[in-house]
Amino acid sequence: MQTQSGIEAQRRRIFRRREDVFPKLVLAPTLAAGTVFIYGFILWTAWISFTNSKILPNYKWAGIAQYVALFAKEPRWWLAIRNLFVFSALFISLCIVVGLLLAIFLDQRIRLEGLFRTVYLYPMALSFIVTGAIWKWILNPNLGVERLVQAIGFTEFTFRWLVDPKLALYTIVIAAVWQSSGFVMALFLAGLRGIDNAVIQAAQVDGASLPRIYRSVIIPSLRPVFLSSVIILSHIAIKSFDLVMVLTQGGPGVATDMPATFMYSFAFRYDRLALGAASAFVMYLAVMAIIVPYLYSELRGTRNA
């Protein structure tokens, strides 16, 4: 017969087994859905890009014909790439500058810091669709800034960037920076609060002014935050779709076309599913080319630490 201690030990083993199984059962549906609807459809998109699919999928292998057509026969794709580079350069640089300045402002331990931090972060809580709708109203010549200034008395004032093919892209930049700069501010503020005060005090003892301390000591210490900000913002820029669709729908004409809107148009409007899949997979590879080296360097740094 088993002793009382043996029975208790067996009960504990059974209980531990149940504890191990229950979390797996809870996570299993989410894991299965994520595998199918994320990684499964990534593989499906990759396969479709190597076919001649039109309005419906066609699974017959066709080689790299769609990629050749994308880069050699579609000038609109190169326009989308150029717009992406212009948008990304302005979006990333302005978000970093504005976010850093806001973080430095809040780092001065001002009154109502919590209120200001919430106000600056609030736009990030909105979806890009809401942001696009707000800025479309603000920039609309018949409803927004132009109409308001003219109503005040400046009847000659015009602000028609939203409908100007040469300036429409910059309206997307304005809306995107408004939404994302608060998030960058939070990253920089966390970095500023993590700097050892002893370093700053030593610089003050040496007679360095506050601007010089920020320029020579504090900002160089924020290199990891700069890198993280660039990686995250680059990821957002490459996938820009909803903000562009709400604000300009890629127009006027195709003046604000981006790779994501190019993919949507060719896959679902022009019934060229394979070409749209090829452009989507190129975007996926671009995102992976940014994220994978960053994750590798972070994981290697964690192991070395």
**CATH class type:** Mainly Alpha
Can you say what the CATH homologous superfamily is?
MetI-like
What form results from the Cα inertia axes? globular
How many domains, as an integer? 1
CATH fold title: MetI-like fold
Proportion in helices: over 70%
Main beta-sheet annotation: none
SSE topology string = HHHHHHHHHHHHH
Low-confidence stretches: none
- Going by helix content, strand content and strand pairing, the class is mainly alpha
Terminal CA distance: 52 Å
User: What's the number of helices?
Assistant: 13
Question: What is the number of strand segments?
Answer: 0
Mean pLDDT: 86
Rounded radius of gyration (Å)? 26 Å
Specify the CATH architecture.
Orthogonal Bundle
Strand composition percent: under 5%
Q: Could you explain the architecture of this structure?
A:
The chain contains 13 helices and no strands. It has helices at 4-48, 65-72, 75-106, 113-125, 128-139, 145-152, 168-193, 197-205, 210-218, 223-238, 242-247, 259-269, 273-304. By secondary structure, it is mainly α. The chain has a single domain, classed as MetI-like (MetI-like fold), CATH 1.10.3720. The chain is globular, with a radius of gyration of 26 Å. Helix 12 (259-269) packs antiparallel against helix 13 (273-304). It starts with a helix and ends with a helix. 74% of the residues lie in helices and 0% in strands.
Strand and helix layout:
Layout: H1 4-48, H2 65-72, H3 75-106, H4 113-125, H5 128-139, H6 145-152, H7 168-193, H8 197-205, H9 210-218, H10 223-238, H11 242-247, H12 259-269, H13 273-304
